[in-house]
Structure formats: structure tokens, C-alpha cells
Amino acid sequence: xxxxxxxxxxxxxxxxxxxxxxxxxxxxxxxxxxxxxxxxxxxxxxxxxxxxxxxxxxxxxxxxxxxxxxxxxxxxxxxxxxxxxxxxxxxxxxxxxxxxxxxxxxxxxxxxxxxxxxxxxxxxxxxxxxxxxxxxxxxxxxxxxxxxxxxxxxxxxxxxxxxxxxxxxxxxxxxxxxxxxxxxxxxxxxxxxxxxxxxxxxxxxxxxxxxxxxxxxxxxxxxxxxxxxxxxxxxxxxxxxxxxxxxxxxxxxxxxxxxxxxxxxxxxxxxxxxxxxxx
Length: 279
Prior knowledge:
With about 280 residues, the chain is of the alpha/beta class. The protein contains nine helices and nine strands. The protein has a single domain, classed as 3-Layer(aba) Sandwich (Rossmann fold), CATH 3.40.50.
């Protein structure tokens, strides 16, 4: 009798856990999610997509999200913003710049007209940000890392990213989705520089990223390079141009969209880092 009672209790506990998990997932799906996407030109190409030549239908991230809402009864919306703007801050969105605006000069007031995390997290439930391809111009380390330096070196990037992670952890109710950096075409860099860039992006994936926190990755670098060092020739917008093609953007939209909704609904557990479903 005692054994049967214990078995009954075990079954009830397991059933309750499953029901709670399902309930939490449904609650998350039904929750209105405002998403901010902060980017420059490469991000704009992916976000805005293209009109499909065969169907004539527009393929872009807002349309993908809206289609997902229609099919799944969700209420997600995404807004894009150039961050930072060319004036007054300047057209730079490297690790130093996010650190400079969000950590060093964070607070309740904008910094040079740019919103801090204190401001953004009041309006958005998810914040997605990226660097444009000049982030891959990684110079040699000097041996004197400086968190306040604009020099694009691994040692400086590392300090700036650690400070950014600590700051983002202060907003546990907000989910952050960080792109790994955009790659350069072979003609615009050297092998040594490309190797340093890859080292940084691998560090972001293998060391900086933590399980169980509110920060997630979308591995754009892997998608552009397919395991190599440079933006693949078939994906570059033109000779010596490190922007991706709109054709490449079309392929990226479902992967990016899937990664976004998986992070919202499952903490990214049902897609891999490039947005492919793991089940």
C-alpha cells in the first residue's frame, strides 16, 4: 500500500511539472513581445529582405514575424533602428561603442541622443544588436588591454564584452540576442586579421556565452563564412564589397526569425546558433 502511494505521488509530481512547463510556454507565447533590432547597413539588408521574383511577395523580417503571429496566435512585433546614428554620436557600432553608450555612460538619460539600456528595457522585451563588418578588422594585441580604448583588438573586445554581459545581466526580464560579427571579403583583409576576427567570434560562442542567462546568440559569422575566414564570394554584394546580397538575405530571414521566436518561447533550446531547428 505504501509503495503504491509513493508511486502515485511520483506520478503526480511529474504530471504537475509537465503541465506547469506547458502552461509557462503558452503564457510566454501569449505575452506581447516588443523587439528592438539595433543595426547598421548589413543588418538592414537582412531585416528588409527582398521581393521574391517568383511569387512577388515581400520577404522580410517584419513579414516573417507577422506570418508567425498569424499561424501561432502570438503577438510579437519588431522595430529596427540604426544604432548609433551618424550624428551626433558617429557611425560606429563596435564593442567599444555599445560599452561606451550602455555601460560607461549608462543611466536614465540618453547619451549623445542614443538610448541607454535603462531606456530601451522599459520599452522592449527583447533587444537584438550586432556589429557591422568593420568589426572584423581586428589588430594585434598590444599586451596592454584597455576597456576604454577604441582600438579594435581582441584584448579590448574581451574587456568590453565582459562589461556588456555584466550590464545586460542587470535586466533579467529582458532577453538579448547578439549576432556574431559580420565577415569581410577576402580582398579587404589579410589572413592574419581574419584569423584574429574568427578567434574573437569563437571566444564569444565558446567562452563569453553562458547557459541559463538572458543572453543568446545568432551565429551570423558562421552563416556568411560557412566555416571559412571570409564572406563567401557568392554572398558578397559586389567586387570588394563586404555587404551581403539580397539573395543571401532571403535565405537568412527564416533562420533569423526562427531563432528570435525560439529564444522568446524556449530560451533558444530548440534551435542551434544559426537558427536551424534541433528537432
